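Long-time lurker. I teach an intro course on protein structure, and each term I like to show students one example going from raw sequence to a predicted 3D structure in token notation. This year I'd like something fresh instead of my usual example. Would anyone be willing to generate the tokens for the chain below so I can use it in lecture? Attribution to the forum is fine with me.
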Amino acid sequence: MEWPIVGMHGQECGAEMWRFAPILRTELDEDPVYRRMVREALDYIIGRGTNPVEWARCTDTEFFDQDELDEYLTAFYDYLFGDRPEPIYAPGNGRPPPGVVAETRSEAAK
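-- Reply from a regular --
Happy to contribute to a lecture. Here you go:
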């Protein structure tokens, strides 16, 4: 149960979501009990409003804010249980905050 909820979202595996997500989706389609368990776990995580700090502690994947994390988790849920054609990727941890990027680009233009 740890894999679909935490493991595959970590920095080590998140870049290969294109490979792992379809495998998980197939497993969920083939096993209704596992499907129910993963759905209930994601319902809880999304409904409870897991915050970016909690998520980073579990996965080592950092999100700038709650909206960004919610978008990611909802897209993953919709991929597994809805009609989304593919999940979105978690952000990389090496990216600077949005304001820093804008400042760096404007300073380079000077």
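Some talking points for your students: The first helix runs from residue 2 to 5. The radius of gyration is 16 Å.
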